[in-house]
């Protein structure tokens, strides 16, 4: 076995999902983001400190 002959095991690498490219793709329309809410909007980031409107544990 040489380093030059190594290749990934079968099934370990899958092609990436093309999100939001039409309803026929299965990932169209909402593109896996649901309907409403913060995460469905564009330009969102992970707000790790946000507690859903509850008074924050640390201020």
TrEMBL record:
Gene Ontology molecular function terms on file: structural constituent of ribosome
Record region (Disordered): 1-59
InterPro entries: Ribosomal_uL15/eL18_sf, Ribosomal_uL15_bac-type
Keyword Nucleotidyltransferase annotated: no
Composition bias type Gly residues, residue spans: 21-31
GO biological process: translation
A single cellular component GO annotation: mitochondrial large ribosomal subunit
Keywords for this protein: Ribonucleoprotein, Ribosomal protein
PANTHER family: 50S RIBOSOMAL PROTEIN L15, LARGE RIBOSOMAL SUBUNIT PROTEIN UL15M
Family the entry assigns: Belongs to the universal ribosomal protein uL15 family.
The protein, known as: Uncharacterized protein
């Amino acid at each position: 076995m040489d380093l030059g002959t190594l290749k990934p095991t079968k099934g370990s690498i899958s092609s990436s999902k093309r999100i939001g490219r039409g309803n026929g793709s299965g990932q169209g329309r909402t593109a896996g983001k649901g309907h409403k809410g913060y995460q469905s909007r564009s330009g969102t980031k992970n707000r790790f400190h946000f507690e859903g409107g509850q008074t924050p544990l640390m201020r």
